Amino acid sequence: MHNPACSVLRRSVSFLLFALLLVTAASFAQAQSGRRIPKQPSSTERDPPSQPEPPVQQPTPKESAPRLPILAVKNLQTVGSSIFTDIALGGCLEELKQSTAVEVSSGKDKNRKEASDYAKASKDTYVVLIQLESDTFGTMGGNPRYFYVSYVAFAPGTGKVKTQGHIYQGQSRGPVGVPNPGSTASIEYELRRCGREAADRVLDALNIAPPRRR
Fold first, then answer.
1. Residue 143: pLDDT band by 50, 70, 90 thresholds?
2. Which residue would you say has higher pLDDT here, 66 or 9?
3. If we measure between CA atoms, which residue out of 116, 99, 113, 111 comes closest to residue 202?
4. pTM exceeding the 0.85 threshold for the entire prediction
């Protein structure tokens, strides 16, 4: 026997299931429509150009103090002492050039008055005069073993003596490698050493530290 109440109940359940399916399908469709596929970068797009790095700032070099001009010359007493005077002057020049505080040059021979006048006429150049003298009585034509170096430095602007003195050859054998006393090689070695010592004394008088000995 057909029961009308059961038929109504079945239709109601069917309707609710159908409505539930519609709601679920609508929710799913809405969720899917909310998703967006991320945009793929175009193959023609390029990375932005990199900014050039600023140039490295180099440290500004400190201005070096001006070097003191020195003119070194010789006074030739006799023709016979020419070679030995050149050796003494060469030693003086070598030592002066080792100092970074001075600018050294050499000029033609001058006597004492000429050297003084040259310094007096200059605004900034000291004049160092190197000459040989002898311990023996008489002329400079004697034994060069007795030669010694005489030096004098004249101040610029006035031509007055800044410093002066004498340096004698050594009489001892000295360190290994130094020629025997009295030989020509020994005399040349000693006169060159005297010239270097004269340069050191001049630098000391100018309040300039002499270069270190090697």
1. confident
2. 66
3. 99
4. no
Q: How far is CA 57 from the centre of its chain?
A: 19
Sequence-ordered strand ranges (E) for 29-109: 68-74, 102-106
Residue 26 included in any domain: no
- Give CA–CA dist 128/89, Å, rounded: 10
Q: Domain holding 185: CATH number?
A: 3.40.50.10070
Q: Give the residue numbers spanning the domain of 200.
A: 68-205
Taking only the tens place, the pLDDT of each residue in 97-112 is 999 999 999 999 999 9
User: Is-contact 80 141, C-beta < 8 A?
Assistant: yes
Does residue 46 form part of some domain? no
Q: Is residue 114 in a domain?
A: yes
Which residue intervals of 98-151 are DSSP H helices? 112-121
Question: How many structural domains compose the chain?
Answer: 1
Question: Would residue 196 count as lying in a domain?
Answer: yes
